[in-house]
Sequence to fold (190 residues):
Amino acid sequence: MSLSNSETTIIGAIKNRWSARSFSEQAIAKNDLLTIIEAGTWAFSAMNEQPWQVIAAHKGTETYNKILSTLMPGNTPWAQHAAAFIVTIVRTTLSKDGITANGTAEHDLGAFNATMAIQGSAMGIITHPMGGFDKNKTKEIFNLSETQKPMAVIALGYLDSVDKLPEPYKTRELSPRVRKPINEIILGHE
Fold:
């Protein structure tokens, strides 16, 4: 069976979402950042566990600088211009006893992160999730427990000109966005 991607039925907030690296100096209003985080809370989660937690910070704050200090060198040159950061953290155990492992916690956090990204896209706010950060340093700086696992740092801001980016980031920014054809990801369809 031949399948094709739908170019017309995917909503703009999903289709136009991308992980840009060029952020303007424009600040994100506190309420807008809280709206993006609250949108994430509407993601699905197994047993309605909602295993997500965040540390959010606006540029110019001590918490922002702490988060920036955890980024890997490949992310720092562009991410330092973001208007805000959100560290997303997953609770790895179930809330009923704090001991039993939550086997779907990371999956659910992914849904939380994606939902925030879609909300940000709908608001004209870029979200760029990064796995390139020091997770152990993050746990230490923010005094996280053994059952709190930092999974991503999300840089947020408004889009700026790609010309302000140094290489290799400028070239990456100008590269076409490509997605695998749907035929390559569907293993079965009737």
The chain has a mean pLDDT of 92.
